[in-house]
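Input record, target 12 of the design panel.
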């Protein structure tokens, strides 16, 4: 599925819609260059789960946990990990195979430890279509495709 958004509020609204539709155990992988809107999407996703507090990128902590929504949200930013084994140290499997939802920024860096089934949300800019334009591609990987 490909969605075009023309400002941050539309990107956030897509995240909100996906957050409202997610189920326990869902894993959403976010990819895209710096500044494409991954955090804006995540903020909308959190709203869709009913999370009311501020949501920011966990760049220096690797994972932020939000438990005040209808499902727990585990928001990962793995941009700064040096080795995939660091994910074991934070209990990655407990999050991914738990009852919450995992949203992973820069997931392509840990692809070898991702579960069999996950969605990928790729956010891309196209300066020719405007500063706020985003092309968002949502794909699924797993046994029930």
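The sequence produced for target 12 reads:
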């Amino acid at each position: 599925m490909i969605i075009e958004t023309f400002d941050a509020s539309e990107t956030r609204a897509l995240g909100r819609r996906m957050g409202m539709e997610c189920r326990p155990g869902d894993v959403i992988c976010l990819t895209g260059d710096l500044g494409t809107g991954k955090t804006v999407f995540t903020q909308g996703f959190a709203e869709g789960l009913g999370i009311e507090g501020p949501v920011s990128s966990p760049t220096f902590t690797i994972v932020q946990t939000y438990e005040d929504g209808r499902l727990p949200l585990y928001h990962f930013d793995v941009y700064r990990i040096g080795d995939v084994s660091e994910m074991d140290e934070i209990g990655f499997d407990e999050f991914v195979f738990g009852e919450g939802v995992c949203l992973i920024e820069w997931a392509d860096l840990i692809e070898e430890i991702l579960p069999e089934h996950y969605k990928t949300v790729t956010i891309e800019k196209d300066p020719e279509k405007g500063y706020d334009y985003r092309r968002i591609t949502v794909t699924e990987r797993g046994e029930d495709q």
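The mean pLDDT is 90.
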